[in-house]
Amino acid sequence: MAALRLWPLWLQGLALVWGRAGTGLAHLAATAPPAPAQECSEFSQRSCEECLKNVSCLWCYTNNTCIDYPVRSILPSSLCSFSNARWGVCWINFEALIIAIAVVAGLILVSIAVCCCYCCYCRRRSRRPDEEEERLARKREERRLQSLQRKHERKLKHDEIRKKYGLLQDCDNPYSRFENE
Known about the structure:
rod-shaped, 5 helices, alpha+beta, 4 strands, single chain
């Protein structure tokens, strides 16, 4: 439950950082929020920028009022319509802020899902080359054995021909042909 109570504060901080990202950290430090003694209602009928300097305030454009952000509920739907509520920065309404956060969260989830699917696909493909390599190695060994068998058959055939014409040399006495002459 504590996380639900802190959600609006986190959302406010995100909006402030997002709204002031282009101005740099020096500007963020220079525009410190007013003292906590001031109530948000004191900024009513002034301007949106003055109201939103206090991160716990919400500006409503329908009646130009600055009200306390309802910490108990995550979305301030009962106080002001989403299209007229400003929180964190004046240039983006609450409705657009919610949509932008939902889109970013959706993109993150989709990219995580795509990465997981891609990793599973790659892992499955990495197993196949092992099987394919084994199959290629078996074929290579079969071809080598067939080649050795053909080589042996050729040697036998050549030895037969040499024997027929008397050219076969004995392995025991390689100079026997020269002794007969």
